[in-house]
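@channel anyone free to eyeball this complex?
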Amino acid sequence: MFKKEEDFIENLNKIRRINTSFVIANKTIKTARNGKNYIEFSLTDKTGEITARMFPNRDAEEIYDDIEQKSIYNIMGNVDEFPRNSRNFSIKIDSFQKLAEDEYDLDDYTRTSLKDQNQLIREISTTIKEMKDPYLKDLLKAFFCDKEFAKQFYQSPSAKIHHHNYLGGLLEHTVGVLLICKTSCEIFPQLDQDLLYTGAILHDIGKLKSYDYDLVSIDISNEGKLLDHLFISCDMVNEKIRDNKLEIPEDRKIQLLHIMLSHHGDVQNGWGSPVSPQTPEAVALHHADNLDAKVKGIMQKR
Amino acid sequence: MFKKEEDFIENLNKIRRINTSFVIANKTIKTARNGKNYIEFSLTDKTGEITARMFPNRDAEEIYDDIEQKSIYNIMGNVDEFPRNSRNFSIKIDSFQKLAEDEYDLDDYTRTSLKDQNQLIREISTTIKEMKDPYLKDLLKAFFCDKEFAKQFYQSPSAKIHHHNYLGGLLEHTVGVLLICKTSCEIFPQLDQDLLYTGAILHDIGKLKSYDYDLVSIDISNEGKLLDHLFISCDMVNEKIRDNKLEIPEDRKIQLLHIMLSHHGDVQNGWGSPVSPQTPEAVALHHADNLDAKVKGIMQKR
Amino acid sequence: MFKKEEDFIENLNKIRRINTSFVIANKTIKTARNGKNYIEFSLTDKTGEITARMFPNRDAEEIYDDIEQKSIYNIMGNVDEFPRNSRNFSIKIDSFQKLAEDEYDLDDYTRTSLKDQNQLIREISTTIKEMKDPYLKDLLKAFFCDKEFAKQFYQSPSAKIHHHNYLGGLLEHTVGVLLICKTSCEIFPQLDQDLLYTGAILHDIGKLKSYDYDLVSIDISNEGKLLDHLFISCDMVNEKIRDNKLEIPEDRKIQLLHIMLSHHGDVQNGWGSPVSPQTPEAVALHHADNLDAKVKGIMQKR
Amino acid sequence: MFKKEEDFIENLNKIRRINTSFVIANKTIKTARNGKNYIEFSLTDKTGEITARMFPNRDAEEIYDDIEQKSIYNIMGNVDEFPRNSRNFSIKIDSFQKLAEDEYDLDDYTRTSLKDQNQLIREISTTIKEMKDPYLKDLLKAFFCDKEFAKQFYQSPSAKIHHHNYLGGLLEHTVGVLLICKTSCEIFPQLDQDLLYTGAILHDIGKLKSYDYDLVSIDISNEGKLLDHLFISCDMVNEKIRDNKLEIPEDRKIQLLHIMLSHHGDVQNGWGSPVSPQTPEAVALHHADNLDAKVKGIMQKR
Amino acid sequence: MFKKEEDFIENLNKIRRINTSFVIANKTIKTARNGKNYIEFSLTDKTGEITARMFPNRDAEEIYDDIEQKSIYNIMGNVDEFPRNSRNFSIKIDSFQKLAEDEYDLDDYTRTSLKDQNQLIREISTTIKEMKDPYLKDLLKAFFCDKEFAKQFYQSPSAKIHHHNYLGGLLEHTVGVLLICKTSCEIFPQLDQDLLYTGAILHDIGKLKSYDYDLVSIDISNEGKLLDHLFISCDMVNEKIRDNKLEIPEDRKIQLLHIMLSHHGDVQNGWGSPVSPQTPEAVALHHADNLDAKVKGIMQKR
Amino acid sequence: MFKKEEDFIENLNKIRRINTSFVIANKTIKTARNGKNYIEFSLTDKTGEITARMFPNRDAEEIYDDIEQKSIYNIMGNVDEFPRNSRNFSIKIDSFQKLAEDEYDLDDYTRTSLKDQNQLIREISTTIKEMKDPYLKDLLKAFFCDKEFAKQFYQSPSAKIHHHNYLGGLLEHTVGVLLICKTSCEIFPQLDQDLLYTGAILHDIGKLKSYDYDLVSIDISNEGKLLDHLFISCDMVNEKIRDNKLEIPEDRKIQLLHIMLSHHGDVQNGWGSPVSPQTPEAVALHHADNLDAKVKGIMQKR
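replying in thread with the prediction:
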């Protein structure tokens, strides 16, 4: 059963009655100042996120306990706008009911990149195919021929709350960075193209282990919190080389790890790089990453 | 009379006798610690810069006074390397002689962009031609149909000592930034293309007034030192609009001035923007400028 | 009909019943945690600002929609203090009624400088009269003989929420800075008096375009948000010179623009100057501005 | 024997022979790169400082050892300018001879404030006389009736290399700050005048113990280096109160110490205040101090 | 009457009825959004702090006014957990009753160091006893033989909200720093042991005057707010020396004051030192203090 | 042939003739300002470093070319002091002669830790032996039973120019940090001892690959420059676990890597940590490392 176009969150822009379904992404119990409890929800579908509140007559705790977070529910209630003309909408829930798996189409609830995934994947595979450096090409093939890796790479979000925080966000961001790197090589033909493109493709792969996500939610993993993706990405490269016994010249490997490790810019900026970019390719990758992330960031805020 | 290939500064890489010509870009008199004076020179040709020293027998002051800075001289002496194997070369001058205008080809001495100037100009003119916003298009045409402006724009350096510090550097940098902006519009089709491209083309025009340069030298002008190019660029836009009585909607003008004025990034970074980038186009221009400048910067250091 | 002394906001300092009038500067609808809506107001008169809340029996949205923001209303209700002895007062509104124009005296509601405006204006006009530099004198006269400019200059606030955020605040701040500059010239007679005083008088004129204000409210204008007053002030000087065809030596103009443009201090501090103060007059103006603003700032917080 | 007007350092601005006297403020032995030693001097008189060099024929070490630093010598040699037209003058010494005490007038060699000392002292004594707060007035009198303190206060420099680094510099700076504070009280009549003026007069008294100086030189004392003047100034106030058993209300004392201790501004700026200014008087004193110091600083650099 | 083990705040970890006693550390009146008032409390006992709320039927203001802050009350009500499974507990109060002094044991309510106080005191006294420098030993004895000082020193908290914010916190922190300094002297035997240990013991004594505390609450004193403990600690050393006419070599005193005054690290960090650590002992004390404070800080957050 | 006690660099403290041997650590050719060349040397022995200069009569380049850097030479010449009484000594070389391997005792020239190496090693091995966590114990044993690793670990310097920049410096620093961590565990018994000690022992092992050193010189390796020791240390742990197939719980490994990766402190400080310390052990290790490094640093400067 598909959701109706008008019931998607991005279209909830007038005061009216609704009867449709959402993911309950989050639930919190709150005490009203009259001493009664009510429940606050964060509801999501593929188009966004909206706040909802329920003021139950019977015991709020009991209702609260029954709700399965990250499941799909049918919701009845009202779309409200506070303050008037603020374009700030929320939902007051009257009642809800959990849906069985055959009662909804999961695609309606999954927040995902709006770009054409196949085209993004093609950009990466073409880049790998045209690479001349045999060692870097082998390394990339070792990653992308690993079907489990490739699948995760195409699905992973790039953040929990910052830029590209949705399924496919990592792929979308990676291709954005790659395209800017390609233009950089047009402008500066002296750049080591294969090295820069390899760095662009692999620079954020540690995010695969930095988030615990499923189709309807994203959380930072323990590993992501304690080690962060800069280290994890480089470690994944080293592990891949060791596990697949790839023959890559030591110096080449260090150059690749360097541009990945320094892609957050100068150490003294305090943005998390443990070494400052020291080669033209490292400088280029840092600024390409920054451009794609910051422009996306300001656009998502709007 | 052309300089020989082997006599260009970038090729002075072994100890040997020379007899060729350079611009004397700078002269300084220094007292040796034995109480005698000698003269230190900075010599340039189109391929770079080299230090030279002369230890005259007769009075150094007199010789010093006779030298016309920023003129072209024939130099006889030795290329030395100190310390040995350091790849650090300088010249010990035995004698020199000022050349008449017909004794050299000025092109040998002018440090200039190595890019194909026509292609760069074409990139800009095509961009203007394809623009749809009539106001921005008119503004750009008002600038580039002004032959004096266009000539200066194509010749101006982009800096005295930082990135793109040579004739044509401004044009080269501007096109670099423009290309990155074009890729950004590919990645983010929501960006206001015409606004962003206009900002990219005009963002550094204040540099035309920030430098006093001729074919063989670059200095910062008084105006450049006291007002800097961010303000001057915006003032030139305002002046052009007033002088040519261009009809551009107030709001459109403010948006253009905003992305130009904020192109050094967030105010609190202390890089000179008097306002922080607040629109997606402003963020994109700042990062495109930064990418092109920083990659060029590290390449020129090598 | 004048407001009674005891009913001005600065005198609402005990729990009691009131029946008097205020500007409704702001209204917001909020959902109480029992699911009901109430309205929160920001009320102002010439002595300050106070928060008020109304818990209507009938539909809050309807009442909310009827209220005309920035108009003057008669309010009936209670002054409350929460927590007790906190000196933190607010109003619980029972009912209100819009007043007709002949039912109030606008002066009771306008937040304005408490200084003697005529004396402040005299300080500026005397300073201009005594100036010896004919070019700077002409420039100042061109501004202040423009009646529209002068009227705005005398009325404009200097900020929305920071120091001097009330009508006449710009004039008051400008004279404060000017007086400190005069003492600075006593201490340091080498300072270029006319240049420094001209800079002091004009340094913040861009604020005229940075705020949209009327007698009862102040907002930041789009131009103020995207270009900020440093740039706008300098642009207004350039525009005045061009429009009035004033003959001011180029070098003199640059020096004036320099001290205006750098009056937020060193670029690397990140306070918004696009150039650092490089002349004694620029250093003096920056610190005079800072002194007047910061002392006012801490006094207004009390 | 007075120095001739043309022989004062500020007038040594052409290449010529000289035969006059200076303080030898500093001497250093240096090895010329031909292996020979020469001696470099810093010479001073009341108008400034100049570098000199001597290239002796006989053993430089022996000559060096004989020179008494901080004594007055007659010098014969040449004023040179390197590079030509640089306005950068130094002296090449041929011979020198120590002068007996009756052969010179010490006033010619003492770098000292150019302001009228009596007028500066009068500014301070009038301020004290007009003070109404009996406790602060007593405290100031306890300091300035102490003849030893007063004498030192009138003579002390305010710095070794920064602003006001000459005899009487502390008095000159103190009065500068005081005048700005007086203007601040005109602008902001709510300021606690007596508190602010007392802070202004005493804020830098710790400098009396922070420098070891005599008529011809200034050095930082061990106490100045390890404790700095902020702490020492406050400690001197506490010591004076205890020694003279002054009856000052605890709260008043803390307020005075606060504005002295915080006069370098906000703690987080890292300029040395151990507490941030938290009262209007503390904010005013900080900015008055900063204004006087920074304007003087840029003027002394010229 | 002792509190039962299960009724201590650290054990209130399930939803249940309670009837036990707490300190009412803080009370605030708040308006519920239905227009009614309720009271919010901060309750403490020796094991921690918990929030409570009361929604009275009769007039909240009256009840509020009757409550004596910082007194001990018997509380009846419910422990609640919001949201469920959040481990975030609070109390909903039904009724309360002030206890007479003989109805409770004050020890149950006093938040205090969990370390063995005698052992901590012994560490300090042994350190003093073994000291060889007679001047520093005398100084320490002058402090610790002063019974009033010693009593306060053993009881004082070390902060209001940061690390060691409970009775005895200063002693516990001081001994922590002292132990790290002892290990530092093992590693670096060149350190001046007696100087470093004296600095460690005295570095925070100014906190005795920086807090107003009693057995159940801690506030920052006016002196603490306006002068802060760095200055006060050093002033107490100077006062003790003057009052007791201790004979300590000037240089030794300055070295001690230096390591105390600089123990917040480099001036430019903006952490409040008015001088940067310039001796090995000053560097060691700063880092020992930092280690003890930061490790405690992160542990208290858990 | 041993060097005489008086001929060690730390004892070269008066002007005299010498005839003894040093490592020529560095040679540079310089042009004297009279146009002649001379050679500048950096000489070392186990007690330190001294500058020397030679002014040859015959061609300096030829002599320069013959000198084998990092070899041991007998030097004849003079110890000089410039300026007199500055305690700043250098050597003027008359002649020198390369020594054969049997003409010197290498121990005289090797800059090495002055601590008892066996005792330091014992501290580490005892710590490992007493560890209870079987996984961390196995990991440490895997490292230290690897004889090649252990040998390098005991010999490696800890820096090129900062603290502990000599052979054995890594071991000395590691034990210093370990001892401070042990004291920290005494103060805070809740710390996870085994985790903290393992982190302390392994935190800088990446320095083994960050320096190219032999008995007489230290350089930063390419790997050290491009990846830095924080990353390399963690990578060595991961590699050891994979190569030795150690069974360590994933969570335990992440905690260990976290405290190693964050030991340069908060990311935003810009000191190179890619993640901020987030556990008590991470905070403790960071501050222990900082204490040992900074105290050593200021001591080595003296």
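from a first look: Chain E touches chain D through 32 residues (CB under 8 Å).
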